[in-house]
Amino acid sequence: MPSDPVDHAKLRHHGDVDAHPGLLDFAVNVQGSAPPRWLRERLAACLTDLGRYPSADAESAARAAVAARHGRAPEEVLLLAGAAEGFAMLPRFTPRLAAVIHPSFTEPELALREADIPVTRVVLEPPYTLDPAAVPADADMVVLGNPTNPTSVLHPADTLRALRRPGRLVVVDEAFTDAVVGEPESLAADATPDVLVLRSLTKTWALAGLRCGYFLGAPEVLTRLGQGRPHWPLGSLQLEAITATAAPDAVAWAQRRAAVIAEERAAMIGRLTALGVDVHTPAQGPFLLLRVPDGELLRKHLADLGVAVRRADTFPGLGPNHLRVAVRGAAEVDRLVEAIEQAGL
Question: Please, what is the end-to-end C-alpha distance for the chain in angstroms?
Fold first, then answer.
């Protein structure tokens, strides 16, 4: 097979690399530094049980909770040790050609390329609107995010459904969907055999260090994905976290948080636009894509001033003048604005 000209180091880059200790973190999209108190207390209550292997009952309870949360059957749920594990499973389908919609999160493309799966990029131009006809007809797998990282674009559900073709699997990364009020464009409840939805608990629940997520899809598809996994692929704390965050009260909490994010995002757009920063809108995720005159230099100046932002030139279709910033509260945004002014945008 010919050598791969794609820069795998760029595909492997994540925002945590930009967020050095001590910096005010706009580079990582996790909401907060720790889970809410009630969730921490629930996880802490499980510590005395860590001497036992995770039980089948706990795994079944977690799947049942996720299924009820999305109106699916338990056999349509595959629990994951983080969304990254889900992306690593995609090559098991051995697609003839995988189409990845960009700009978007690069982990799925990296997983496919490292497994020598042929990949074609469908690179969207601003305003990053998806036309299903742009996807090659012979692509038997299509992967995209919704809302999309880093553009913060929320594609209509009907547009995603229009990607379906006989013999094609559509994989939708909904890692940030629970940060959207009402989750209006989610396909999580679509019980169709050719749509696979990925969810993550990392961002809204500040559980990046615990690695929790799940796939929603047809049982036969999930069975194929799960082949070859070891015994106890998830630990007891992971199962407890998944069960807890799928409960109705937890979902309601997340939706209240999504409403706060929407307010903070609108205020943040106004503050940054007033500085002359080009902010991509409409934006529906808990992050914003910026374009500035000299992105690499500004990013370095901001780091010197104690603020971390995410370089966005590692996303296919974007360049060095693109930056991504997480949506934060007014006090944090004050510091970001002050740093941008000091850096002399």
Answer: 46
* CB contact at 8 A, 27 and 122: no
Task: Tell me what the mean pLDDT of segment 96-107 comes to.
Answer: 97
What dihedral angle (degrees, nearest 10) is formed by the CA atoms of 44, 47, 49, 50?
A: 140
pTM as predicted: 0.95
**In the chain, what percentage of residues exceed pLDDT 90?**
92
Sign of the CA dihedral with 215 first, then 92, 54, and 238 last? negative
Sheet architecture: strand order including 310-311:
278-279, 287-291, 322-326, 310-311
CA distances from 252 to 245, 307, 329 (A): 10, 32, 21
Q: How confident is the model at residue 1 (pLDDT cuts 50, 70, 90)?
A: very low
Q: How many Å apart are CA 200 and CA 86, to the nearest integer?
A: 10
Residue 4 is predicted with a pLDDT of 56
Q: And the tokens for 225?
A: 């994905």
